[in-house]
Amino acid sequence: MPHVRLIFNPIASRTDTRVVGRVVDEFLREGWDVDITGTTRDGHASELARQGVVEGADLIAVYGGDGTTTQAMEGVVGSSTPVALIPGGTGNLLAGNLRIPRNPRAAARAAIRGVPRFIDLGRMKCNGGERYFAVGAGTGIDADIMAKTTTRAKRKWGMGAYVARGLELLGAPNAVPHRITIDGETFETDALMVLAANCGEIIPPIVRLKWGISFDDGLFDVLVINAGTFVETMDAAWRMITGLGHGGKRVAFFSGKSVAVETETPRPVQLDGELCGETPFSAEIVPGAIKIVVPKGR
User: Fold this and answer.
1) Per-residue pLDDT reduced to its tens digit, 74-85
2) Which long-range contacts does 22-29 make (Cβ < 8 Å, 24+ apart)?
3) Where are the alpha helices (DSSP H) in 30-120?
4) How far apart are CA 80 and CA 291, in angstroms?
5) What is the pLDDT of residues 138-186, one digit of tens each?
6) Longest alpha-carbon distance in the chain
7) What CATH number belongs to 124-287?
8) Residue limits of CATH 2.60.200.40 in the chain
9) Are 8 and 149 in contact (CB under 8 A)?
């Protein structure tokens, strides 16, 4: 009988424990043995996943948002155990990029009947610590939005809480000097945001950073936005999501295996939607770091 360890965060902003029961039912119906484990503190998902690998689980399933998912994946890196994503929480951009169904029951069925696919991960060093990420990491207005969006707002409005806070911050954009090094080549520029992206879509499948960003090509796509006014920021956003401004004055993309970012004054850093200290930070790509179960044909 195959064995799955199901990890979930019972206090995540939008986790519904009733859904956990429905997910378990799907696995039981297909003849799986299910071990349910809830997180109790920051970093616990990584410990639970690592424990599941050591105990011989055939699959590590994670019900939650990007934060819980990222932490769980950290506990699986270096093993041959695949990970299944059951989207929940405020959002799960990795699941969206992989076209994993948003409905938890359908996601569980995809986990049971899908196929494992290797994807890259980023490995970040920031404030003396080391973390992995799957979607993207960086500094600027995206990290500011996450830093200033309350748990209460996320619980009530979901992704809408981030949108509302973003619109507020865009009214007074703050581009500051950055020193950016990509694969050993350094340049300096004012930037509103610097992002090392591993996935291309920021609102799957509707809004993407640009075409061609792949989670299994062994490279980051580094986005640098330089905009100092509201009008410039709106122009940059429009050019980015429509693909009109790549390589232009306000929106630039670079490819590389490593990136380091410094600022004159510390700025918040985010990693897969979770705050992760302040600048400076560095990150490197880890090709084929983990196996994710995806729907057949993806």
Assistant:
1) 999 999 999 999
2) 22/104, 22/105, 22/108, 23/61, 23/63, 23/86, 23/104, 23/105, 23/107, 23/108, 26/105, 26/108, 26/109, 26/112, 27/61, 27/108, 27/112
3) 44-54, 66-74, 93-97, 104-113
4) 7
5) 998 777 666 656 556 555 555 554 554 555 545 556 788 999 999 999 9
6) 59
7) 2.60.200.40
8) 124-287
9) no
Give this prediction's pTM: 0.87
Type of residue at 167? L
Phi, psi of 117 (to 5 degrees): -135, 130
Q: Which residue has the tokens 């600022």?
A: 263
Contact 222, 196 (CB under 8 A): yes
> What would the CATH number be for the domain defined by 3-113?
3.40.50.10330
Q: Token pair for residue 249? A: 């004055």
Report which of 58, 67, 18 is spatially closest to residue 39, judged by C-alpha positions.
67
Give the count of beta carbons closer than 10 Å to the beta carbon of residue 159.
Answer: 13
